[in-house]
Specification:
By secondary structure, this protein is of the alpha+beta class. It has one helix spanning 3-24, and strands at 34-37, 47-52, 66-69, 74-79, 87-96, 101-105, 111-121, 124-129. The protein is built from 1 helix and 8 strands. It has an 8-stranded antiparallel barrel. The protein starts with a helix and ends with a strand.
Length: 131
Amino acid sequence: MNRLPVLFVLLVITTSCQKKNDIDTIQPALFKNTWIESYEENPSHDIRIYRPDDYKEFPPARFRQVFDFKTHNDCHYLVLAPNDAHYMTEGVWTYENSNRVLTILNPDSEVAHRFEVIELKEDLLKLKRWE
């Protein structure tokens, strides 16, 4: 009879850990979308909030970062030009599940952007610039 409480505690701990891991798991298929920075929602300077392009009508802005993640790890992203003639360019994206790092390479295979993925849902991409 003394083992019953111990087994119950182990069951509760195991179940709790499984639920947390399920919540923390990033589903890379959810990246495949056009994401627009919703900087009005940014909780701090280093955390960036992105929403799908059809999430809402975004207010006018001088520059709003856009990432368009495609299948086969192709992507397009908006480049901030010094003369305000911003343009989309092609790139390649990768996601490393082990450290939750999203990397975007430019056409010369150089790192254009690197982020830690804080959260990814159908209507939310929360990123922190990777240091």
